Amino acid sequence: MIIVTGTKRSGTSMWMQILIAAGFSPFGEAFPRTWDKTIKNANPDGFYESILRRGIYWQTNPHPRTGDYFFPEQTEEHVVKVFIPGLVRTDRAFIGHVVATMRPWREYEASLNRLYAMEDESRTDEQKAMGTPPPRFAPVLEWWYENFALVRDIVTRRHRVHVQSYDGLLRDPERVIHDTVKWLGRGDAEKAVLAVKPENRTQKKVESSSIEPEHAEVFDELYRVVDERHPITGALVAKLNETNKVLAPRIGAAQRDLANEMRRRRRGGPGGEPEDDSEGQPSW
């Protein structure tokens, strides 16, 4: 299976559109549930998501509602979006090729806040009556937590992976897509190039002071290495590890606070996104 991975708002949907245009069969719907009525403007050409975005493992395969199961050999010509935490928990047997995309952390933060604003605006009267919007992980910490996990997973499990920057794809889509399709060994690169629509980009050269300068410098270095196609060296891995040691307590506390608040607020009813809603998701 070809797995498209990255954080939210990092170009994963665009890569799904590219690889579908290249001829690969997708798992997931362009607009699950009511997304065409709520957050379509965040991605007008479709998200292509399913419960597999949480990973391909025992909680998603077999499908929790239908019991349907797919085998690795049945999905070699399929492409699926799996966010980074899901990639980390995905059974390695299902990982054929991984196309990973990374976006600058400041743009990610701004884009995610824009998405959250859309979700909040689309909340039903019943949801609004329940109080404030759902709690959320600080985007800058989420960017670091997930991209550090991506690097760690690549270094540890050594699956076949192509890591591409968001900027690099938009700078030269023809070269990047032809190189990627050649690496995959199949697919129509010419048709795939037509799926790239730079005009859908909503964030450019934004500023942020939501993280200390010394950490921002490391975040920027990681992105620069990916964007300029440099190898991930031992020295860089050591620097990433040291940064993560400093940020881990802060991230852990934020995750605990988020989990506690979600438990307190959990009352059922449809949310803005189908996080763990197997009833609202397609089967295979």
Q: What does this entry look like structurally?
A:
The protein is an alpha/beta fold. The chain has a single domain (2-266), classed as 3-Layer(aba) Sandwich (Rossmann fold), CATH 3.40.50. It has 11 helices and 5 strands; from the N terminus they run βαβαβαβαααβααααα. It has a 5-stranded parallel β-sheet with strand order 2-3-1-4-5. Helix 6 crosses helix 11 (234-265). It is globular, with a radius of gyration of 19 Å.
Give the % helix: 40-55%
The shape, in one word, is globular
Order of helices and strands: EHEHEHEHHHEHHHHH
Broad structural category = alpha/beta
How many domains, as an integer?
1
Number of helices: 11
Q: What is the top-level CATH class?
A: Alpha Beta
Number of strands: 5
Percent of residues in β-strands: 5-15%
Q: Numbering strands along the chain, what is their spatial order in the largest sheet?
A: 2-3-1-4-5
Tell me the CATH architecture.
3-Layer(aba) Sandwich
Computed over alpha carbons, the radius of gyration is 19 Å
Poorly predicted tracts of residues: 269-283
CATH third-tier fold name: Rossmann fold
Sheet with the most strands? 5 strands, parallel
Average pLDDT metric: 86
The end-to-end span amounts to: 14 Å
